[in-house]
Specification:
The radius of gyration is 18 Å and the shape is globular. It is α/β, with parallel strands linked by helices and about 230 residues long. Helices cover about 40% and strands about 15% of the residues. The N terminus is likely disordered. α2 crosses α4 and α5 runs parallel beside α9.
């Protein structure tokens, strides 16, 4: 059995560790590395047969179903169809995503992809996610999906799972687009948390340091990585 196969087998075990103490950067996918909202709203317009708002319109923290102007149960049906249809394999990628991950790993840092995609409910979530990463030359060392901990029987957020698997001291930074996720990363002790600015997260008191794009994120991370290395 190869090392990647062993890591895949044990990635959700509470005692799993990897990297021999290497620093770690955590990156979200949808809305951070990939343009999920534009892609989903395009799909919703076709699936529902009605015009959707532009993904560039300012959404002051509204629920996505409210922003779309549809009942929440209809939104959930649409989202399920989007996920089941394998559309995430060709979601648009943001500029500089491949370069960002290449640069991070060149510094000797592991990249852990952290996503809330429901891999336990749909069999295609994991393969569709990894195929999207492959197609877009996104480098990574591990993927964490949010879900139920079979050992403890409770729901475990992606950042709680990350901290448990690698230890908080190894985590240089995390980047996400959702305020509830940046808040959870901070709650779990991650020292640097970046918010990828989007039209739906522009409220003033959103937790996390704002970055406008992935190149700016790299400039911040480069400093964070240098500081981490200097103190360890």
């Amino acid at each position: 059995m190869t090392d990647p196969e062993i890591r895949e087998m044990f990635k959700h075990h509470p005692d799993f560790r990897s990297g021999d103490g290497k620093p770690v950067v955590a990156l979200d996918i949808d809305g951070t590395l990939g343009n999920y909202h534009q892609h989903f709203l395009w799909f919703a317009e076709q699936w529902l047969g009605q015009e959707m708002p532009s993904s560039t319109d300012i959404n002051p923290g509204l629920r996505l179903s409210t922003f779309m102007g549809v009942p929440h149960h209809v939104y959930r049906e649409c989202k399920l169809a989007y996920r089941q249809g394998g559309l995430k394999r060709f979601m648009p990628v943001y500029d500089y995503a491949a370069e960002l991950t290449h640069n991070i790993r060149q510094e000797g840092v592991e990249i852990w992809i952290c996503t809330t995609r429901p891999y336990l409910r749909l069999d295609n979530i994991d393969p569709d996610t990894r195929e999207w990463l492959r197609r877009n030359s996104i480098e990574y060392d591990a993927v964490i999906f949010e879900g139920v901990d079979f050992g403890e029987g409770d729901f475990v957020t992606k950042y709680r799972d990350l901290v448990r698997q690698v230890g908080v001291d190894r985590i240089v930074a995390a980047a996400d687009d959702l305020p509830e996720q940046t808040a959870d990363a901070i709650f779990n002790g991650i020292r640097k948390v970046y918010l990828r600015e989007q039209p739906y997260n522009r409220e003033r008191d959103v937790p996390g340091e704002r970055v406008r794009d992935l190149y700016q994120l790299w400039l911040r991370l480069r400093k964070d990585i240098a500081e981490w290395i200097a103190t360890h």
